Amino acid sequence: MDKFNTVLKIVQKQQTSLGFGLVALLTAGGEQIFSSVVFKCPCSGWNFSYGMVFLLVPALALLVLGYIMSNKTWKLFTGLCLRKSKLCHFKYFCASGVVFFQITTTAVVAPVSWIAVALLNGNYFECAMTGINVTVFTKHLCDGKSPQCLDELYKFPCGRATHVPLSDSNDVLATIRAESQVLGWLLIASIMVFNLLLTCVARCNSPVSYLQLKFWRVYAQRESDLLENYTADHAEKLAERNLKSFFQQTPPEPVTTPSNRAWEKISSLYRFSTRDHYYSILHKYVEKCHDPAEARDHRMSSVRSDGPDTANPAVLAFVDEGKMML
């Protein structure tokens, strides 16, 4: 169990310490095992459906898992139904859409890796394309082959074609596998170029310098780690106090716990402002909460928890991430 927890902690920190390469590598390894152990092309009328399910459904599951494991997803959606009036505001809706897009760019790493590796492997695509019901494509595959090629195309992945020479069957499968691998490399290249363009645009419009951005990333990760530790320690102390009071039948010792309003305020999404110098919503709350001038002027309303009103610069998308939710 201790070893499992160690591995779990490594996975939780993958976005900041090991990067998206670890996610892609784990997904690729999983796809290889899945393809060799589980996948068996039926070589029937189910070829297309079976192959596409194995190609796309795991990717969809990984995408949903990516959303679930993101802290920012739950910061955005928790309590959203209680803010129906805000949802009708175009500015709020657009800002929320930008945040959701930032979440998606992170969550899409694993599913894209699955599809790319599956296409490079070719098994799923090969099975699906031998069962596709598109005359133009099947004629393209069987061009110059035996007349029975079209009728027995679905049997090729299993090598059960009885009226088609083995050389024709191998040529068709080689063509499909080559097309699959070309699509796989095109997908990888497209994603890398798209990611490079997004990163360049985000850095080009960064409101902070390169070194401050590095410091900001370190601060955000350390705050997330310490918040988790403080939360666990405080919860343990409160639980121990309550149990001690219950079993010993004594008055409970005073333990200071943040109010519901305080939790609500630090649970909102961070909003960047050129007028302030706060590195997180917690930093902003602490500074304003203990500033007598702010309290006297009733400016605490600037630390709100009703979601984003304006979109943050894309380069600061990491601020609300913290650790993945597992």
UniProtKB/TrEMBL annotation:
Tell me if Amino-acid biosynthesis is a UniProt keyword of this record.
no
Q: What GO MF terms are annotated? A: monoatomic cation channel activity
One GO BP annotation is:
ATP export
Q: Which UniProt keywords apply?
A: Ion channel, Ion transport, Membrane, Transmembrane, Transmembrane helix, Transport
| TM annotation in the entry | 50-69, 90-116, 182-204
Q: What topology does the record note for this protein and the membrane?
A: Multi-pass membrane protein
Where's it found, cell-wise?
A: Membrane
InterPro entries from the UniProt entry: CALHM
Q: Name one GO cellular component term.
A: plasma membrane
Stated family: Belongs to the CALHM family.
Q: What is this protein called?
A: Calcium homeostasis modulator protein 6-like
Organism the protein comes from: Salvelinus namaycush (Lake trout)
